[in-house]
Amino acid sequence: MVFPAHRTTGGLLLAELTPAELEETYGNATAEEAERPRLAEPRTEPARIHKQGFAVNQGRSERGLVAVGVPVRDPGGTAVAGLSLSMPSVRYERARLPALVATLSRSAAAIKAGLAPAQ
């Protein structure tokens, strides 16, 4: 099963796009309206995700599932992937969010360190 990017860790990558890039990506999409991000609305969620550096998906892609994700950046600082962990929602405790984000961020930094510099 393939989920729309805006409902998964792909939202971290969408948060890196400018409004023009987001429109170019989704402007002519043939997916049903319910599957597309609402481009006419302010970009509050992507802007918030970009600012805080992580995203939390509580049931957006699958009921009963929570995922926390961070971007993986290349040595030049460009987000090239997303790294996430998921768990049943009954095991998610918001109080643990800072520790989860810190663990994911350390892992993303280790991946970044292993990537070749941009040519």
TrEMBL record:
Residues 1-117 form the IclR-ED domain. The lineage of its organism: Bacteria, Bacillati, Actinomycetota, Actinomycetes, Kitasatosporales. This is IclR family transcriptional regulator, pca regulon regulatory protein. SUPFAM superfamilies: GAF domain-like. GO terms for biological process: negative regulation of DNA-templated transcription. Residues 33-48 have a biased composition (Basic and acidic residues). PROSITE patterns: ICLR_ED. It comes from the Bacteria. GO terms for molecular function: DNA binding; DNA-binding transcription factor activity. InterPro entries: GAF-like_dom_sf, HTH_MetabolicPath_Reg, Tscrpt_reg_IclR_C. Residues 28-55 are annotated as: Disordered. Gene3D superfamilies: 3.30.450.40.
